[in-house]
Amino acid sequence: xxxxxxxxxxxxxxxxxxxxxxxxxxxxxxxxxxxxxxxxxxxxxxxxxxxxxxxxxxxxxxxxxxxxxxxxxxxxxxxxxxxxxxxxxxxxxxxxxxxxxxxxxxxxxxxxxxxxxxxxxxxxxxxxxxxxxxxxxxxxxxxxxxxxxxxxxxxxxxxxxxxxxxxxxxxxxxxxxxxxxxxxxxxxxxxxxxxxxxxxxxxxxxxxxxxxxxxxxxxxxxxxxxxxxxxxxxxxxxxxxxxxxxxxxxxxxxxxxxxxxxxxxxxxxxxxxxxxxxxxxxxxxxxxxxxxxxxxxxxxxxxxxxxxxxxxxxxxxxxxxxxxxxxxxxxxxxxxxxxxxxxxxxxxxxxxxxxxxx
Length: 358
Hints:
This protein is an alpha/beta fold.
């Protein structure tokens, strides 16, 4: 049988582990092995597989070496077969139609802040998923724990993205963006001039999440009124358990280790009315540990007539395939497809975000 591509197989395993929300160290093992194998001359790779010395290389263990050997023999690695067999059921009905309509993802992170992979790896994973665009939304300076980008680093990132876009496949584009912190007073944590340069701005509350409702409401309303903000990110800030999320995957084991957090308290009716008035979108965050907003709030948002953005908040390539979880919740709550901004073309999306600053 002809040999498979062992590097591609290792990367596919890492992707599926990320999608299943498995432990980071396990994902890293396969990505590290892929990088090591990719740097080897083909003859040396074959010789090491035959002599059983592949696992002596830095970054390659017994499990990854076995996967490489199976791949070179022309068979699907057993580890990969197991993941593909257990990766979950297909979407059905309205959720499937919504997922098919999505053209991109408006909330994703790279290793410029707290993501685990370079921008180009995130972009290529999005291409493989059939996206037309991926909005890069690394954190803003205030979130130091997430290596938020001060103005100078954000400017350098914009230059880097411009170069990457020149090299990416036709029909796909990285859109510039940020997940900007909503400050305690409702202002946004980045220079206005820089926010004006970005294609899409997601604004999120990351601090003082247990503030009293009146204070949190004022904070959110001021941010929504800001012409730079386009999407209100994970608006309640909650973290949920595996049981609450209903996500069934091997990643549930890792998911249970995540701390839970109750939703913030604010005047939902006022916040939704402000989003509708100013043409801002409410994010449906697809992360299994967020699934934000809760269904009752999502239903209220549908009734309020607001726009939505179904996003992954991905911090690794495999997490870009978490859109399915957001689509399932959106379908359950009756979210209309035409009110989801990332079902729109790139041109329409950018016209919409630009309209907020006119």
